[in-house]
Amino acid sequence: MSDLETVTFYMEPELCASAQAGKHNFIGKVARVLIESGLDVAYKPFGRSIGKGWSMSHIKTPPDQGGLCFRRAYHYPFWQIEQSAERWSWDVAQAAFEPDPAEAKQAAWFYSFWQKRLFGDAPQKTSGDGLVYVPLQGKLLSHRPFQICSPLEMVEHCLAHTSCQVVATLHPNEHYEKAEIAALGKLEKAHKRLTVQSGGMGDLLGQCDYIVTQNSSVAFNGYFFGKPSLLFRKTDFHHIAVQADIDQLAAGFEAVQQIQPDYAAYVHWFWQKNNINAGRPEAEDMIKARLKRFDWPVT
Question: What is the pTM of this model?
């Protein structure tokens, strides 16, 4: 087939090898939808030459307007297909969360199932120990356009607006520069209420009163523990979180201690109704619907 009839998947080498071997469930389902629509598929690791035309890029922004981005929606088997890698611009981020009372029983079952599946009995043993959990991401000293302040400044705001213990955790997959670690260490020495550590998400989700982060997936995981979050950056799962306003931070910290979202309704709405559950029989129909949403030639 010509390049115009071929959809190229761009991925990390390990994921590319898995897809080529037919061992990746979601990519296999996407490929089947494309092939059944008369298209061919090809798999290339990032770093190779990138051509124009139909493409699917894992996590990264597509190379041109003919491309889409695909990304796991925090846990398997949930996935999303979008035009942009920026989660705050996705359809689900723009949608209004309006829980359907008729689905309350179904949502409660779904929520309970995934609590148990992901975290065992831990969500049933939570406490509020007067602790603020601050999962950090990357570039601690940089205030990027989609953030309201730098991650380090976010920690400083936590210390300024609460009298609680603050535990800030480093991301296990981030590489931190010496200057970043030094700045964080200096802040820890200056404030006895601040602890900086790596790991411990499960325990901290159980113990914390609430979560403060830019848009770490830890905040989404916190929903399974019934823990609210204050977000300093845009994301796709913002609907039941408090969005921090740099000019009204005191109000934000007050609000996150007061809100009582319907976590079950939200997780059900977000995952089952606004993402692709690749474990469901109708997964390929959902994939087809997403591709048609972006005017791809699928039938």
Answer: 0.95
